[in-house]
């Protein structure tokens, strides 16, 4: 068992972090501020891990102004990894000073220059509570280091963390848990809708950086604990559990790096299985778990069959979305590059280790996606509503904008629960409306009056598309809140010369599906 410790959030000198906060704000060290300094093209290049355009833009700006802007100095140091003169950092952080930055462990002296020890960057977002912005401290990335990452690396904000924060349901809760908090970004997001957040990690350094980030951004409702998975919260229950766990499937072979931020130390997808199997014992009734994960395919067996076995029969509702499936080779290439190893002898050695591991264990493919699990309410409060068990494949489900999906998930869960508890008679008496983001597309053969193809499109959420037949198109088109579903079906039966009971039996299941997916409200 890993010993449990509770970290003191004031791990840094009490007066220094407020000074840093003051200086970062005064320097306009923000996402729009930096884009304004080096431009959109340099911004895009940085996202591709290329810093030269940003370096050139900042050098040109310095010549033009005959001085270094404070935000430019901070960007050169903490984002691009360039050493800067002490005088420049003193000017950029006038309240904290270069000496204070050294005491905080942000920089170290090298001859007459100061080099960065951490990555410090602005981060902006929009969620159900509105627009927000923070500063996030993490370990230096490959761009600044110039070599592969260390195994104890504390990751900053990446694509996966943005995805999970976008998926996070924003419902108000008393207690939330962030498993494997890393730099603390998910715990910080959870702090916006939870009264108290517990954040855990197996890395003391990750917890220290996460505590620094909470303090820097004046977030005071997060408690940090050391330990693996559910060990630090044994016997406790939470209303919301969030995790971007170290789910990467890495060979347990000598010479293969094991990164704390992504490799859980278990064989295959056992770590994700452990989180899923342990979740029910740590949720309050109605509590929800949201996590990212990988799962393996063995031979011809569908991975969803394995996921079903992970879920305690009858204990948890589940909505699992598989976004992508990779071959062993594609998976190996993705995660070897993620660690900073580039093509060459080391890359080839690691590639062979990955392929050997998958072959030895009979793994033919690896799926990636999102898991939403829920402990049902007690029978007295849940009524007769059947449980949710939905496993589906939605390639590229999030597109390029996961922001706001958490609210959509919450609405879909509420819609599922409502329609599951509503019998057909009541549903027929209900007035429904089409969601504001829904559009209908029709295709016609030239010269024909009747469409040959009709499709319903969802503009937000998961961007679903649904083929329509004449009856369903007519029902959706009439859902403007004026008529009950039963009245609409009755009118359609007359218009289409159809048997009304048969048409009702055909359309009501489709209406329920449209409610659950957010097409109808």
Shape: globular
Structural class: alpha/beta
Q: Given the structure, what is the number of helices?
A: 20
Number of strands: 19
Write down the Rg: 26 Å
Major sheet strand order: 1-9-8-7-10-11-13-12-14
Keywords:
3 domains, 19 strands, disordered N terminus, globular, 3-stranded antiparallel sheet, alpha/beta, S-adenosylmethionine-dependent methyltransferase activity, protein methyltransferase activity, methyltransferase, Rossmann fold, DUF7059, N-methyltransferase activity, 521 residues
Describe this structure in words.
This protein is an alpha/beta fold and 521 residues long. It folds into three domains: 5-123, no CATH class; 157-379, Rossmann fold (3-Layer(aba) Sandwich), CATH 3.40.50; 422-516, no CATH class. It is built from 20 helices and 19 strands. Strands 1-9-8-7-10-11-13-12-14 form a nine-stranded mixed beta sheet, with helices on both faces. Strands 2-4-3 form a three-stranded antiparallel beta sheet. Strand 10 (238-243), helix 11 (270-279) and strand 11 (283-298) form a beta-alpha-beta unit. Helix 2 (31-47) runs antiparallel to helix 3, helix 13 (328-338) crosses helix 14 (345-360) and helix 18 packs across helix 19 (485-496). It is globular and about 90 Å long. The relative contact order is 0.08. Residues 1-11 and 379-385 have low confidence and may be disordered. It holds the Pfam family MTS. Residues 413-520 form the DUF7782 domain. Belongs to the eukaryotic/archaeal PrmC-related family.
């Amino acid at each position: 068992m890993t010993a449990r410790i509770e970290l003191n959030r004031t791990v840094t000198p009490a007066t220094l972090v407020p000074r840093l906060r003051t200086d970062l704000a005064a320097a306009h060290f923000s996402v729009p501020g930096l884009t304004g300094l080096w431009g959109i093209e340099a911004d895009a290049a940085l996202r591709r891990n290329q810093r030269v355009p940003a370096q050139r833009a900042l050098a040109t700006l310095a010549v033009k102004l005959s001085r270094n802007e404070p935000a430019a100095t901070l960007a050169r140091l903490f984002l691009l990894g360039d050493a800067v003169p002490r005088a420049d950092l003193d000017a950029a952080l006038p309240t904290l000073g270069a000496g204070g930055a050294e005491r905080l462990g942000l920089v170290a002296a090298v001859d007459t220059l100061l080099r960065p020890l951490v990555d410090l960057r602005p981060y902006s977002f929009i969620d159900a509570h509105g627009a927000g912005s923070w500063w996030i401290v993490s370990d230096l990335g490959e761009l600044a280091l110039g070599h592969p990452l260390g195994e104890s690396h504390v990751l900053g904000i990446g694509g996966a963390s943005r995805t999970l924060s976008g998926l996070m349901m924003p419902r108000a809760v008393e207690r939330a848990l962030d498993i494997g908090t890393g730099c603390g970004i998910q715990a910080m997001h959870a702090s916006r809708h939870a009264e108290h957040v517990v954040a855990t990690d197996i890395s003391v350094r990750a917890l220290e950086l996460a505590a620094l980030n909470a303090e820097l951004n004046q977030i005071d409702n997060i408690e940090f604990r050391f330990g693996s998975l559910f060990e630090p919260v044994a016997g406790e229950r939470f209303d919301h559990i969030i995790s971007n766990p170290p789910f990467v499937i890495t060979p347990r072979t000598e010479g293969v790096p094991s990164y704390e931020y992504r490799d859980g130390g278990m064989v295959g997808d056992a770590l994700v299985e452990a989180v899923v199997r342990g979740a029910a014992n740590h949720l309050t009734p109605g509590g929800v778990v949201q996590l990212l994960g990988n799962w393996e395919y063995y031979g011809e067996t569908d991975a969803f069959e394995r996921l079903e076995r992970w879920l305690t029969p009858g204990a948890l509702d589940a909505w699992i979305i598989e976004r992508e499936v990779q071959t062993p080779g594609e998976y190996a290439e993705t995660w070897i590059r993620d660690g900073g190893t580039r093509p060459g002898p080391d890359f080839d050695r690691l590639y062979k280790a990955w392929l050997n591991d998958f072959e030895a264990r009979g793994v033919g493919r690896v799926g990636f996606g999102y898991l939403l699990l829920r402990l049902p309410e007690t029978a007295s409060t849940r009524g007769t509503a059947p449980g949710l068990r939905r496993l589906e494949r939605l390639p590229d489900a999030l597109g390029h904008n996961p922001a706001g999906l958490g609210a959509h998930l919450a609405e879909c869960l509420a819609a599922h629960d409502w329609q599951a508890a509503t019998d057909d008679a009541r549903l027929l008496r209900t007035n429904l409306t089409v969601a504001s983001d829904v559009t209908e597309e029709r295709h016609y053969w030239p010269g024909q009056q009747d469409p040959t193809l009709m499709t319903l499109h969802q503009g937000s959420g998961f961007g679903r598309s649904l083929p329509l037949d004449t009856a369903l198109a007519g029902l959706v088109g009439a859902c403007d809140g004026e008529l009950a579903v039963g009245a609409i079906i009755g009118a359609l039966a007359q218009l289409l010369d159809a048997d009304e009971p048969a048409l009702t039996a055909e359309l009501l299941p489709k209406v329920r599906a449209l409610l659950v997916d957010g097409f109808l409200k």
